[in-house]
Amino acid sequence: MKTGRLNLRISEKRLTKLKTYAIDKEKTITQLIEDWIDRLPNSKTGDSSSAPLPNQPDG
């Protein structure tokens, strides 16, 4: 599989929160983001074939 690169600018507070969450879930940040992307609805049908997204934190 060919991969791409994503650069993201977020606050240190959010990055720390993300890292802590990843450690708690025993996943990498990449895995967390890929899991989230995979749960997004299919743009052609508007449906998602997997579980709904969890409630989003206020940040």
Would you write up a description of this structure?
- Helix content is 41%, strand content 0%.
- The protein is mostly helical and 59 residues long.
- It has a domain at 10-39.
- The longest helix is centred in the first third of the chain and has 14 residues, at 12-25.
Secondary-structure topology with pairs:
Layout (H helix, E strand, L loop, with lengths): L11 H14 L3 H10 L21
Sum this structure up briefly.
The chain is an all-alpha fold and 59 residues long.
| Largest sheet report | none
The count of β-strands is 0
Helix content: 40-55%
- The parts where pLDDT drops under 50 for at least 5 residues are none
| Dominant shape | globular
The arrangement of helices and strands along the chain is HH
Instruction: Give the CA-CA distance, first to last residue.
Output: 33 Å
Rg on CA atoms, Å: 13 Å
Helix/strand structural class: mainly alpha
Strand content: under 5%
How many alpha or pi helices? 2
Mean pLDDT: 85
> Looking at the chains present, what oligomeric state does this protein adopt?
single chain
